[in-house]
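Q: Sequence in, structure out?
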Amino acid sequence: MWMDHRAAEQAARITSTGHSVLSRVGGVMSPEMQPPKLLWLKENLKESCWNKASHFFDLPDFLSWKATGSLTRSLCTLVCKWTYCPPKGWDASFWTSIGLEDLTENNFSKIGNVTCSPGSPLGDGLTLEAAADLGLDPGTAVGASLIDAHAGGLGVIGADVKGFQLPCEGQPITTRMAMICGTSSCHMAISEQPLFVPGVWGPCLSAMVPDVWLNEGGQSVTGRLIDHMVKGHAAYAQLQEKALQSAGDDFYSYLNSHLHRMSSSCSAVDLLGSSLHVWPDFHGNRSPLADPALKGMVVGLSLSQTLDDLALLYLATIQALALGTRHILEAMKEAGHDIKTIFLCGGLSKNSLFVQTHANATGLPVVLPEQTEAVLVGAAVLGACASHDHGTIQEAMAKMAKVGKVVEPDHSLQRFYQRKYQVFRSLVAHQREYQALMNT
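A: Exactly. Output:
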């Protein structure tokens, strides 16, 4: 599981090698990537797992192997999470330097020595066994896979934006960032030439859209953090009761309405977050600081634990996540990206407060897809290419991804979020100062 950080110590050791492949993962090896997880398996489960394994798969490649019997790996998984770099391929010196030289044997057969671009047809399609399991016809085309977030990127980023008065209209697709938000968030930016962004994964060639480079920022917990903050609050039981009484609203819809009622004395809900500030790295920072040891912070608490206090903590958490996106965008822009519009999908795209706050905090318009399950659209793009219903990924995503709604930023809040962002950046500086004091 990507969210399993038990290999943090192995990741730190890999980073300390300073190997050149680290330049393609933002300079720091994350415990969410596969080399540290593989090293953990070798060091902790050598007899029961490591010595017995014939193949090690990323989940998307495991699924395509089960479906087709093909050992061909997707460039998406290998490039983004395994340090594979086309056209050269694997760097044997890296695996040797971290103590996994046994994976280089037989031309890297255990981790994959045949690769292809996402959407390429695999094998002869579904095997008889897989077809029976799925209730589909044998031979049904199966496209080489994408990681779920990358599929979401395909499901939104290529949409035709004519007529929506967006700043990315008439501009290259590289002016768009796909943001896939659920348990965690992934921030996908593409470029014609490789761009190296400190603390951000990539550049990865053909990892999402063929023949272009991908940088992937992200936050390790977003939806998971919102749940943690809300469900752990003393007023959570009261919130559940109120939401049930309010026409069966889910409690996040109820909280959004409750905040609007609280803001009747000020011009915007956002301003309610003036004196409560959150640093959202309760599970470490994926990017752009690439520091899994960072912790969460909340500043501005009182003894009060009312429903109003819960709503304010919920708001401050969403604002912190949006400012984290701004932090990632800032790092990408400094490295050469020119992002003008955010294309957002995933479970949190259904939360209007989350979406509007991201527009307000970043100052960029946010595009929501017509089909809310954009990850499934991206998966369908792969199938459409594998079955030759479309000739290329670019053609398929342009026809299958559609704009649903555009959320514009409230520019009157620009100064508020500039001040809020200064506090946000100060929080992590203070945390590191405190760590240094205590580690002296």
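The CA atoms of residues 96 and 102 lie 8 Å apart.
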